[in-house]
Amino acid sequence: MYSSKHREFLEKYLGYEFSTYISLVNANSDQIKRQVMNAVLSYLLQIEISDDVILQKCNNRKITYSELRLLVYLRNYSFSFAKFKRNLQ
């Protein structure tokens, strides 16, 4: 699914195991991609990892509007990865 250039980048910076796991996730449905991206983004923003629209923060930092939009979009069950990629461009 990934070109050799992308695979080399993933293996170099994130390790072979992550590259293998991400290729398995990429081969599966939008639902799994949505859940993985939601978990990673929630972790990075220090927000409780959940599919609920209610956001519970783990620190006192205010959430920005763009962070809120991304999280709500990723927590939406009608998420489409193709639309998500189109909106990012």
Question: How would you portray this structure in words?
Answer:
The protein is an all-alpha fold. The longest helix has 15 residues. The model has no long low-confidence stretch (mean pLDDT about 80).
Question: How are the SSEs ordered, and which strands pair?
Answer:
Layout lengths: L3 H11 L1 H11 L3 H15 L20 H10 L6 H8 L1
Observed structural traits:
mainly alpha, globular
Portion in helices: 55-70%
Unreliable spans are none
Number of DSSP strand runs = 0
Q: What's the story with the biggest beta sheet?
A: none
Strand content: under 5%
Q: Globular, elongated, flat, extended or rod-shaped: what is the shape?
A: globular
Question: Roughly what is the average pLDDT, rounded to an integer?
Answer: 80
What structural class do you assign from the helix and strand content?
mainly alpha
Distance between the termini: 20 Å
Work out the helix count.
Answer: 5
Order of helices and strands: HHHHH
CA-atom Rg in angstroms? 14 Å
Provide a short characterization of the protein structure:
The chain has five helices and no strands. The chain has 89 residues and is mostly helical.
